[in-house]
Write a structure and sequence with these properties.
Blueprint (H helix, E strand, L loop, with lengths): L1 H31 L1 E3 L1 H11 L1 H17 L9 E7 L7 E10 L2 H69 L5 H36 L5 E3 L21 H22 L4 E10 L2 E5 L2 E5 L4 E10 L5 H69 L5 H35 L4
Parallel strand pairs: 1-4
Antiparallel strand pairs: 2-3, 3-5, 5-8, 6-7
Helix pairs in contact: 2-4, 3-4, 4-5, 4-6, 4-8, 6-7, 7-8
Amino acid sequence: MNNIRSIIMMNMILKRLTVALTLLCSAFSVSAQRSLTLDEALGIALKNNQLIQSAEFRIDYFKQMKKTSTEIGKLSASWMHGQYNSLYQDNNLTFTQSIPFPTVLSNQHKLGQEQVIGAAKNLSVVKNELAFQVKSSFYQLQYLEALRLLISSQDSLFEDFARASSIRYKTGESNLLEKTTAESQLMEVKNQAALNLADVEIAKTHLQALLKFETPVSAAGVLQKRELAQVVDSISVAANPQLNYLQHQSVISRQAKITERSRMLPDLTIGYFNQSLIGTQNINGQDQRFNAGNRFQGFQLGVSIPLWFGPQVARSKAAAFAELETKKNAEHFKTTLAGTFAQAQQELNKYSSSLNYYESSALKNANLILTQSKKSFKAGEIGYIEYLQSLKNAIIIKSNYLQVLNQYNQSVIKIEFLTGTL
């Protein structure tokens, strides 16, 4: 008998230690997390994300490449020594420089400028997409946290229900069916709580990955309705970063076409020579002897014209097709964007109407149902079936409200993404 009591006491001690360790681990896990506001999360993401850094390096790349637009080629220097003028050994030093036609240099410079602008627009695209993902993930985490609190309140309600049913069963006021039903509902809520806890941890991990943050993160604040920063209409999508980027790609292609066509212009050549002319020269009617120390110099100008224009004509035509391609891409995206924006506005209006319904009446009714049904069940005015159904109806209303609120916020975030609002 003493052994049995000892085993029972040991089991109780182990259970209490397990509960204490669990609470301690949970407290440590929460304290190790960093609670972030949305603005803080966005700031960290924009600072740490490698795609942002990559896009910034791309801007630096094109800034450096723009400096190559004035490239004129290498200076040519040649030395000639021998009997090219007489039997004497003369020498000649010649410098020659080929320069692209000034129009080509100007067009290359403009192309470099447009490429830098295009890289900056690409950075805006990357920032807009990252901000959309962070905001969407942040509000999803807040929704799951709000759902966790709702499930926790359900747990308390059904614990009270299960406790009351157990007492009523022991006193003979109810049957086994009521007691079993209450216990089953309680276990179902606990299962929902476990699933929700897993979803919360998954959402936290996703947000942490977006932020490239070493410390686990959580979303500060509670789930609230997100308002649009400004009134949006069909004109607002003109600020969409992806649309601006694609439209500017067409500008770059057009400038590339102009540059390729200008390359058919001739190159200019300038030169300078310095040489000896050993021998006798007649200067003003008198013969004069010149040796290797006497130097003769001069300048030369010329043009370089391609004898075969075929390859350059092909490059110009290819650049023209590239311009048409980028134009069609921009036009297609603009049409698709308009349709997506119209759909997003319709979704926002739908969820806004539903949200007004819940906030104006449904939530108040749900709270009233919970209060009155609990009083009526304790007073014996309603049975467990009516009480259970009332609890479920009220909880469904509150759960649906949280879902609609999250969907509304996600619609706002989508419109901000489409209009390029960070």
